Amino acid sequence: MLDPGSNNELPSIPAKRYFTIGEVSELCQVKPHVLRYWEQEFPQLKPVKRRGNRRYYQRHDVIMIRQIRSLLYEKGFTIGGARQQLEGDAAHDDTNRSQQIVRQMRVELEEILNVLRR
């Protein structure tokens, strides 16, 4: 899954159910046209489409995009290599995704605790 170290420079994922392509672009530091391209290349990435083909990404989509970004930009994988890596990770995906979500929730809870302490 995503390396915890590579996630440090990216903003934390807000506690929302759906994100627009603009929000995901900022959260993952990837331009919207790149996100649309990745949807074609990675079958795991399927945002919900509503009125007028507007894309709405869920938390698991944002985590997947961060993983793809890490593989391509930080680890130097090609699109095909990243696709294979993600398919190979499918067996470990549930465990890793759960760990990623727990880490993210912990960060968010610590931020809330800091606000409450003030």
Descriptive labels:
118 residues; mainly alpha; single chain; disordered N terminus; Multidrug-efflux Transporter Regulator, Chain: A, Domain 2; two-stranded antiparallel sheet
Can you describe this structure in just a few lines?
By secondary structure, the chain is mainly alpha-helical. The chain has one domain: Multidrug-efflux Transporter Regulator, Chain: A, Domain 2 (Orthogonal Bundle). The protein is 61% helix and 5% strand.
Describe this protein's structure.
With 118 residues, the chain is mainly α. The chain has a single domain, classed as Multidrug-efflux Transporter Regulator, Chain: A, Domain 2 (Orthogonal Bundle). The chain is 61% helix and 5% strand. The longest helix is centred in the C-terminal third of the chain and has 28 residues, at 90-117.
Helix-strand blueprint:
Layout: H1 21-28, H2 32-41, E1 48-50, E2 54-56, H3 59-74, H4 79-88, H5 90-117
Antiparallel strand pairs: 1-2
Number of domains: 1
Instruction: Output the CATH class name.
Output: Mainly Alpha
Radius of gyration: 15 Å
Structural class: mainly alpha
In N-to-C order, the SSE pattern is HHEEHHH
Q: How confident is the prediction overall: mean pLDDT?
A: 85
| Beta-strand residue fraction | 5-15%
Tally the beta strands.
2
Low-confidence runs of at least 5 consecutive residues: 1-7
